[in-house]
UniProtKB/TrEMBL annotation:
It comes from the Bacteria. It holds the Pfam family Aminotran_5. The keyword Oxidoreductase does not apply. Residues 38-282, 370-537 form the Aminotransferase class V domain. InterPro entries: Aminotrans_V_dom, PyrdxlP-dep_Trfase, PyrdxlP-dep_Trfase_major, PyrdxlP-dep_Trfase_small. PANTHER family: CYSTEINE DESULFURASE, CYSTEINE DESULFURASE 1, CHLOROPLASTIC. This is Aminotransferase class V domain-containing protein. It comes from Psittacicella hinzii.
Length: 549
């Protein structure tokens, strides 16, 4: 279809949504107070509707802290209701609200996760230390080359701190899509030693939607003990749509992470949702030297009395018998003595039993548990200075102690209720249609080339004569690269005309290194954007290109 006809057809389709878009846009004070503003940086932070701002103003005036007295009962209820509402919004099938905790943002949640898992894996590795040193076996964390830095740097840092950990990056295909062949190969080769795979539901850079269902199927088949972590920051707002797109009822992940400021909510508030199989590793709530000693004594006594622990152990390759300080095995004749050695201590026997039972660092055992990283006030059951230990009420190890961001938390209930009142499916399809219209209008310009469907982006970039190139763009994103650092110049030019966009590497340096460009310019749309705004932006790009090239 000729480009002009395609643009005209899309324009007609967009006109059908005019009333819907007008009603949606009318709810945002930032647009009312700045009628000339064209906000196309929604992937970074969404605007806030009046309903959320009203909730903030109302509850900000409430006195006191949460969970303190009858006077703050209503404040506590509002926060608890928001907690439940967000939990149900992200995972409709999850009835356990305690599986979700609030954090400062997505980055905070991912760093907290890395710290917690790192401590747990390090303790688990101590029981495999001998075999790890002998075999030089590594355990792996898998990430994608297009991950946001928040979902890269914590894992890079963690692997640098522990010799037994290694980071493996799944490279992008030449068309910048997810490399399933590489992913499946890595799971086949290292499935028994993959600890975590951490990806995005929707890529921050260009809106690419990862097929999470297929990823989860491969993980379950080839690396069943590995944990799956999903950075859902870009997918949180239209969470139900992305679940439907993946043919899923809920996310098949052990950790789901996101931020409220990507959901038309306030900044300073993120979430971390944990699966049931991970929560099983959090039942021990006593900490300190005395508590640890008591645990060891209890399990030692049980082991010496019964020969096993509460959970079914993997049997050792051969049982050891000790008679008169001489060691025999079932595989040897009792008349044939092995090399005489010292009789093992009770603790050594116990540690040996654990070595037989832990084959993977995500395996459950009765000494090591996921522990809170930030402790203090908020969920303490008891503290003993005499025995130097403490116990906690909360069994979710990612709960953060201390006074939380109450002012933002009081808006969560309203935020989620407001989202659910919006015709989100219609708004999603409208915005996707607007993205297609944006690209169709771009292609009417003389200086623009379309590389969205190219099979080798990096190679083609430097063979393209036209200076403005449309890179693979999905959903509500339009990603451009312009020769001679033109994207930086264009971003500044647009800002002077009240158009907000994002220029740079978008916290995805490896992506840009893959295609060998210094920066890109990203337009990320929302349902309050309209056809007239896109037309104005196209005219500005045309004016810029005529002067710049």
């Amino acid at each position: 279809m000729p480009q002009d006809l395609k643009t005209k057809k899309l324009s007609t389709q967009l006109d059908q949504y005019k009333e819907l878009v007008t009603n949606f846009a009318s709810q945002f004070p930032a647009l009312k107070h700045n009628p000339d503003l064209i906000y196309l940086d929604n992937a970074a932070t969404s605007l806030r509707p009046q309903a959320v701002l009203d909730a903030f103003s109302t509850y900000y005036a409430y006195p006191g802290n949460v969970e303190r007295s009858l006077l703050t009962k209503e404040l506590s209820q509002v926060i608890n209701q928001g907690h439940q509402a967000l939990s149900n919004y992200i995972d409709p099938k999850n009835n356990n609200k305690d599986s979700l905790v609030f954090t400062q943002n997505t980055t905070d949640a991912l760093n907290l996760l890395a710290l917690t898992l790192g401590q747990f894996w390090a303790k688990q590795a101590q029981h495999l230390e001998t075999s790890l040193k002998r075999t030089k076996q590594k355990f792996y964390i898998l990430v994608n080359e297009s991950n946001h830095h928040a979902n890269l740097l914590p894992w890079i840092k963690l692997c640098a701190n522990f010799d037994f950990l290694e980071l493996i990056t799944i490279p992008l295909n030449k068309d910048l899509s997810f490399d399933f062949k590489c992913f499946e190969m890595l799971c086949t080769l290292h499935g028994d030693h993959i600890l975590l795979m951490s990806f995005s539901t929707v890529d921050n850079i260009n809106g690419y939607t990862l097929p999470i269902k297929r990823i989860a199927q491969i993980q379950k088949q080839l690396a069943p003990k590995a944990w799956l972590c999903l950075d859902n920051a870009q997918g949180s707002c239209f969470n139900a749509h992305y679940l439907q797109e993946n043919l899923l009822e809920n996310w098949p992940a052990d950790f789901v992470i996101g931020s409220l400021h990507k959901m038309y909510g306030l900044t300073g508030l993120g979430y971390l949702m944990v699966s049931e199989r991970v929560l099983k590793l959090t039942t021990m709530q006593n900490f300190g030297l005395s508590a640890q000693a008591t645990a060891i004594d209890n399990y030692l006594a049980q082991y010496l009395e019964t020969g096993n622990l509460d959970y079914p152990p993997s049997p050792p390759p051969s049982k050891t018998k000790v008679e008169n300080n001489e060691v025999y095995t079932d595989l040897e004749s009792s008349t044939k003595k092995t090399k005489k050695r010292k009789k093992p201590t009770k603790l050594e026997l116990f540690e040996q039993s654990l070595q037989y039972q832990i084959n993977h660092l995500n395996d459950f055992n009765q000494l090591h548990f996921l522990e809170h990283q930030w402790v203090g006030g908020g969920f303490v059951k008891n503290v003993s200075l005499k025995e130097a230990n403490y116990s906690l009420h909360d069994n979710n190890p990612f709960t953060v102690a201390g006074t939380s961001n109450i002012n933002a938390l009081t808006t969560v209930k309203t935020n989620i209720e407001w989202l659910k009142e919006q015709p989100l499916e219609e708004l999603y399809h409208y915005t996707n249609l607007l993205q297609q219209y944006f690209i169709a209008k771009l292609l009417t310009l003389d200086n623009v080339s379309d590389l969205r469907y190219n099979q080798d982006i990096a190679r083609t970039l430097y063979r393209t004569a036209k200076p403005i190139r449309i890179l693979p763009s999905y959903g509500h994103h339009v990603l451009l690269t312009i020769e001679d650092s033109g994207d930086v110049e264009l971003g500044q030019f647009l800002a002077k005309h009240q158009v907000a966009v994002r220029v740079g590497k978008h916290c995805v340096y490896p992506f840009h290194r893959t295609i060998d460009v210094d920066s890109t310019i990203r337009f990320s749309l929302a349902p309050f954007n309209n056809k007239e705004q896109i037309d104005k932006v196209i005219e500005l790009i045309k004016e810029f290109s005529e002067d710049f090239f």
